[in-house]
Amino acid sequence: MIRIRYLDVRLGEFTLTDIDLRIEEGGFFVLMGPTGAGKTVLLEAIAGLVPVQAGGIEIAGRGHENRRGFFAIGPRRSSSAGTRFPAA
Q: What are phi and psi of 74, to 5 degrees?
């Protein structure tokens, strides 16, 4: 399970504020939004790649201070590149 509570992330002038999310084990989740909405920043915060100013992230019961290296984010897909990722 992934549980995000009251998450705040600031990168320069960009901020994500008060994000609250719960994804049950075995569940599916789609993150959609316009360019610049913060989708990648949220995923990077979950992965431990950007600092969290407030709130908490738990993945399988591990708090955000213990999750670095827990999983990885693949390269971004350019709409013009047509990159395909194999199922693992």
A: -75, 175
Q: Is 39 helix (H, G, I), strand (E, B) or coil?
A: helix
Return the number of other C-beta atoms located less than 10 Å from residue 20's C-beta.
Answer: 10
Q: What percent of the chain has pLDDT over 70?
A: 72
| pLDDT tens digits, 33-81 | 999 999 999 988 888 888 899 998 888 877 766 555 555 556 655 555 5
Task: Name the amino acid, one letter, at 35.
Answer: T
Most distant CA atoms of the chain, gap in Å: 38
Q: How many CA atoms lie within 13 A of 55 on its CB side?
A: 21
Per-residue CA distances from 70 to 47, 49, 82 (Å)? 7, 11, 28
